[in-house]
C-alpha cells in the first residue's frame, strides 16, 4: 500500500496542508505565514498585532472598526 501524503494540519484560510516551517498558530487554528493577514486590508500579521473574531483575522485597526464598532451599535 503506498504512503499517504498531505495528512497534516490544514490552514484556517486556504485549507491546504500547513508544514511546520511555514506554520503560525492563533486561537488554536494553524495558518500558513503568508495566509496570516488582515481579511480587510490584507496587511501581514503576527502574533503581536492580530485580532480574531468568529475565525476571521483582522489587524488591530480593522478589528476596532469592523467588529467592536458594529457590536457596540447592536448593544446600544
From TrEMBL:
State a single Gene Ontology molecular function: metal ion binding
UniProt keyword terms in alphabetical order: LIM domain, Metal-binding, Repeat, Zinc
Residue ranges constituting the LIM zinc-binding domain according to the UniProt record? 9-69
SMART domains annotated for this entry? LIM
Q: Which Gene3D superfamilies would you find in this protein's record?
A: Cysteine Rich Protein
Xref: PANTHER family? OS06G0237300 PROTEIN
Q: Indicate what this protein is called per its UniProt record.
A: LIM zinc-binding domain-containing protein
Taxonomic path: Eukaryota, Metazoa, Spiralia, Lophotrochozoa, Mollusca
Amino acid at each position: 500500500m503506498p504512503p499517504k501524503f498531505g495528512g497534516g494540519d490544514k490552514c484556517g484560510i486556504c485549507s491546504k496542508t500547513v508544514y511546520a516551517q511555514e506554520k503560525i498558530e492563533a486561537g488554536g487554528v494553524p495558518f500558513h505565514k503568508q495566509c496570516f493577514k488582515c481579511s480587510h486590508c490584507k496587511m501581514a500579521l503576527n502574533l503581536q498585532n492580530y485580532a480574531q473574531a468568529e475565525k476571521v483575522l483582522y489587524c488591530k485597526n480593522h478589528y476596532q472598526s469592523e467588529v467592536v464598532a458594529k457590536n457596540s451599535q447592536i448593544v446600544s
